[in-house]
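Inputs:
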Amino acid sequence: MTEPLFVIPLWADLIAVGLGGVQGALFASGFRGQRRLDLLGVAIIGIVMGMGGGLIRDLLLNATPVTLQSNWYLLTATLAALLGMLLAGVFQRLNALIVGLDAVVIGLFGAFGTSKALALGLPVVPAVFVGVCSAVGGGILRDMIMGLPVAIMHVGSLYAVAAGAGCTVVALSHAFGAPLVIAAIAGLIVTTVIRLLAVLFDISLPEQRALYRRKVAVETSAIPIIKP
Amino acid sequence: MTEPLFVIPLWADLIAVGLGGVQGALFASGFRGQRRLDLLGVAIIGIVMGMGGGLIRDLLLNATPVTLQSNWYLLTATLAALLGMLLAGVFQRLNALIVGLDAVVIGLFGAFGTSKALALGLPVVPAVFVGVCSAVGGGILRDMIMGLPVAIMHVGSLYAVAAGAGCTVVALSHAFGAPLVIAAIAGLIVTTVIRLLAVLFDISLPEQRALYRRKVAVETSAIPIIKP
Amino acid sequence: MTEPLFVIPLWADLIAVGLGGVQGALFASGFRGQRRLDLLGVAIIGIVMGMGGGLIRDLLLNATPVTLQSNWYLLTATLAALLGMLLAGVFQRLNALIVGLDAVVIGLFGAFGTSKALALGLPVVPAVFVGVCSAVGGGILRDMIMGLPVAIMHVGSLYAVAAGAGCTVVALSHAFGAPLVIAAIAGLIVTTVIRLLAVLFDISLPEQRALYRRKVAVETSAIPIIKP
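Outputs:
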């Protein structure tokens, strides 16, 4: 239970929280019909996406949640969620923005999660696991709270694989002697690029393609995937 | 990881746990048809509602869960759940009782959560956040376990807003020098009154009204909101 | 926050993790149609079932998650999940294997959870609670991630009751002076036997039978229970 010597700079952490908040609010604003959320609901999803990754990371590490030690995290996530709502009103075609932001956000949370786990002395494999949970955990929480099918189980496009690859790069670079900051930046880039390439070229694991198509159709029409 | 100097008195904590247990069991007993729960299911929901708020608070604070340090919490929650089942059998019109108890329970958990967070040295904003999570967390867990739409996202009547207002009162009173006990009592009253007024006068945030109506209809007929 | 003097031997822990991983992957492989999972999804469910119980136990105890302190846990869970996928391809009739493994897994996690809680000084009632959460928590997580009705709320056959009885045996044996190892073995046997007998003779609590039948039909046809 010693305090970590490694500290993610506040500004970097807040960038991740802010981008997560914007992305969450953009995502939540896109729902129509029965699933349409009010302002508070959109803000909650923004906060969940902005803060969820860090909270899950610290829970898994049994560390005091950094995101609750300063006022800035929640203020940033909330303001970012409001910004996301405004953007959703301004732009008509949001999908590219949502996907792009998401790729950066999972890259950031994955890199931060793995780095912190390594700094706390975890072995390579669980450090990668903590990074992946940190990267995809916010989205899992979001889907469970919104009653959606959990995206990571059904959406294709190598979502978790991208996070896993980036976190592995962080852990291996660190194991081979690279400074954590360099390792984290390399991991961030790997995750973001893989995720974007996968979306651009519609690459997915076997069996996922059909589900992915159906999911997209479902989200567009706001009819849930659970139907007879 | 120092032990908190501030300790919520056991009797006050047990009142919150007990009322939560009764309310959870009343809520769960109301389900008919496909969602009807057996005795164990009703007891589980009672325990989740009675203990969930405190567990979530202590997880967020990285504190040893107080509710697991004594036999009394679980015994109280279980007995309260049994009492709730009996009451559900005795009274025909439960709705007023469920809503009234719920208002007091979110007020209690919100006030306790915020107070403990402040006592552990958290800044104002995250202290309010911990209080709100503590107030509404039990209900979120309940809805996710029962496969219901998460109420806080869809039910109107200022549910989370009431919790947030009360927790803010606790944090601000404390910041302006009021003793935590007084601050907590003020917060409890604010949350409970706002919540009850919101229900009485059917006040809600923009966009929520339609969803709220649909949700109530759904609960009455026990047909889930997720349908084509 | 002292480190526990009591340590579950790594090999025993890994057996539980491995069996959980096999069982989770077998379960997840059984889905057809809309819920069919790809390789990654099956592996995730295997990891959730293999590691979930231990993670939930350590979260509730505010202990550093043991499963993340060594590479072996995740490697074992992942390899076990792959093995489970192979087995699912080899055997046509898996149900007996899934149910049998499940009975052993909840017995192991329940016994380990209760033992560790007692070793950390928790009173009897919360120690049993931690054991039960540890036993059934992996399955709850699995169901929530897969968007299934949470089995413990709806499936009959004394699922949670079996876990509770075994954990109570552990706690009471220990209270009456038995060494924790003997107490844990006794609890494991009690849980496994009750669970298997309940399945064999189709015993359930009042009100559960109808739901159980419907659930089984639902799983067979892969049409979710949530339908109009």
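Remarks. Residues 197 and 203 of chain C are 8 Å apart (CA to CA). Residues 10-220 of chain C form one domain.
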